[in-house]
Design goal:
Layout lengths: L1 E4 L6 E4 L4 E6 L2 H7 L4 E7 L3 E4 L4 E7 L2 E6 L5 E6 L4 E5 L13 E3 L18
The chain binds zinc ion (ZN) (2 copies).
């Protein structure tokens, strides 16, 4: 069982099934959305993911095919959902134990700030 939640605790989630594709993304959208130079994501099967909390998860459509979810109270960025996908991307930073996921790749490295150097135990240089 994987669990996580936002900064204030109003949004909590849990998932039973194993996630896939732990990765960094430094696309411009992730940067603006998070306020950070890079976001670490992991994809959980949509069917196995349950959200608790009293409707505090707000969805914002960031492009034609994708919505991003954040806590409407504290602002923590929690998830991204592509329309029709069987997976939901969850921000590794909101997991109760981020050590469980080790990013294995970096998406959109060309969009990252030039000063950013990512080191992960599983990314080949
Ligand atoms: Zn919150
Ligand atoms: Zn991105």
């Amino acid at each position: 069982m994987y669990t996580g939640g936002c900064l204030c605790g109003n949004v909590r989630y849990g998932a039973i099934e194993e996630p896939i594709f732990p990765h960094f993304c430094s696309c411009h959208m992730c940067q603006r959305w998070s306020g950070s130079a890079v976001v670490a994501w992991v994809d959980f099967p949509r069917a196995s993911l349950t959200f608790e909390g009293n409707g505090e998860l707000t969805l914002y459509r960031t492009c034609e095919t994708t919505q991003r979810g954040f806590c409407s109270v504290c602002g923590s960025g929690i998830c991204a959902l592509d329309d029709g996908s069987e997976y939901i991307s969850i921000t590794i930073g909101t997991l109760d134990d981020p050590n469980l996921m080790v990013p294995e790749s970096q998406s959109f490295p060309e969009s990252a700030p030039s000063w950013l150097k990512i080191e992960s135990s599983r990314i080949e240089a």
